[in-house]
Amino acid sequence: MTDNTIASAVIIGAGIFGVSTGLQLARRGIRVTILNDGPPANGASGRSLSWLNSARMRSEPYHRLRMAGIDRYRTLFAQHPETDWLRFDGGLTWDADDKGNEIDAAFRHEVSLGYDARHVSAADVATVTPGLDAKAITPQGAIFNPGEGWVDLPILIDLLLEEFAELGGLLVTDKGKARIMVERGRAVGAETATGGRILADAVVLATGPAVPKMAADAGQSIGDGTPVALLVQTKPLAHPLRAVLNTPRVAVRPAPGGTFSLDADWAADEGVKVREDGGYEIDDAVVDALLAEASRVMEGNPRLEIASIGVGGKPIPGDGEPVVGALKAVPGAYVVFSHSGATLGLILGELLGYEIATGAEHPMLATFRPERFASQ
Q: Which of 38, 12, 56, 22 is nearest to 339 (CA)?
């Protein structure tokens, strides 16, 4: 039984938002097809740092949403306590030693929200988490957030797709890019690049960096701040680091099998060139510099070796806040577009699934509606 008259849905995109939403709808008895231009998680979800957090400063509704997102992962972690693809070993962050250092202000803000935070000096960091080279921490100290964690999104997506298939959901891959079919002003399904047509009562755009253009093609504007991102995956290494590190020059996240994921905005800016054909050229020297920065903050300054490099758009809306819900300009069409896809992956699928199935708007999404860009 479904909650209202919605009997079928088609979702374009098999990243964490698309798969999470598809599973929620399938759980409600709705017939769901997920379309993807390649294998699942072949886009932003496959090259995400996937740090689970609500650190630093952001709007109160966004903070509440992120905390609900982390809560869903805690439930999942309780079901898989021995997993190596979802961990809650904390996060550690520090800023550069300059006028822009906001560690004290960020710490006070987090405490004011009841967000678990500890302000620690370089000398004391070893008492809260292992694996750091304390010499890398600046004089203003660091913030340790013991409730933070990380997830491997491709593994999670595969897990969600198993249940999705058991519930009768259909995953269609490798049919090229899809588009919303609009007839008489209403979304009626999706069409693949190879000409396949899938009719549905609801259509969801969950295509990461491609969402703003696809929404515009369908008739609704969404602000876009998407940059190019670079994620380096290392080869396995025996090392005691457990927390996610966010430092002035590199982010380091433990990953399954003793590997580590690394990224930094400067590395993407300096090391990635977009070709005219839309492909990417990567500067090996910049990647080597990123590896060196990661080694510098890790205990023992280990030699890190590259296993793989992921490059592509990092989905970020124009104002930095999530964009979720119905496209009012195109009845029957919905969108989910946001940074922090890992943290929000489960909760946004749940809330958007609720809205599609019931026809009611969820209050937690009130400030994140697509139409807020219409007046800009």
A: 56
Average pLDDT of the chain, as a whole number? 95
Can you give the residue range of the structural domain that contains 326? 8-46+153-223+318-373
Task: Write the CA distances from 216 to 154, 299, 363, integer angstroms.
Answer: 29, 48, 25
Name the strand (E) or helix (H) holding 218: helix 211-218
**pLDDT tens digits along 216-265:** 998 899 999 999 999 999 999 999 999 999 999 999 999 999 999 999 99
Rg over alpha carbons for the chain, rounded to the nearest Å, is 21
Domain CATH for 201: 3.50.50.60
Q: Kindly state whether residues 342 and 234 are assigned to the same domain.
A: no
> Higher pLDDT residue, 102 or 176?
102
User: Does a structural domain hold residue 262?
Assistant: yes
Q: Which residues of 2-22 are buried (b: 16+ CB within 10 A; e: fewer)?
A: beeebebbbbbbbbbbbbbbb
Structure tokens that stand for 20 in this block: 């999470």
Same domain, 141 and 230: yes
